[in-house]
Design goal:
The protein is mostly beta strands. The chain is built from no helices and two strands. About 0% of the residues lie in helices and about 35% in strands. A hairpin with a 5-residue loop joins strand 1 (about 5-10) and strand 2. It is elongated, with a radius of gyration of 9 Å.
């Protein structure tokens, strides 16, 4: 399911894909 994939951008501005199950990498706003 695409819903299980979240997109967040790093400080570098690169979009990375991570599974919702893994919340180790959360977007810092």
């Amino acid at each position: 399911m695409k819903s299980n994939i979240i997109i967040y951008t790093n400080d570098d501005g690169k979009a990375k894909f991570a599974k919702k199950e893994v919340k180790k990498h959360e977007p810092n706003r």
